[in-house]
Amino acid sequence: MSSQVPWSTGLCDCFDDVPSCFMTWCCPCITFGRIAEAVDKGQTSCVASGAIYVLLQLVTGLQCIYSCCYRSKLRQQYSLHESPCADCLVHCFCEPCALCQEYRELKNRGVDMSGKQPQGVAMAPMAHSGMRR
């Protein structure tokens, strides 16, 4: 079993990255969507994850249960300590701070969190469905 390492920033270090802090406080679904897309290595889209987050927030108010799952995935990928307490508690009691910390962690590890496709990456050509004129 690999040893666990500390987070690169603390839970309450939101102002270390003011733009992402502001974005998270105004529209946490964007921050969450970007985190989910990064943690899932592009297998989940930012838009889909953000939409699920908003839907859960509007219908149940329990979007923290969904987002805490991604905190756990992030911790497992980078062998991070479960701190300052259990993932679900962090998200249930301090959702914006948790999202900011996860966003900063990914940025500090070199993950592009802009939500844009990297320059120089070619899109695969669209396959034609066979319907042509």
From TrEMBL:
Source organism, top-level taxon: Eukaryota
The protein's name in its UniProt record: Uncharacterized protein
Organism: Vaccinium darrowii
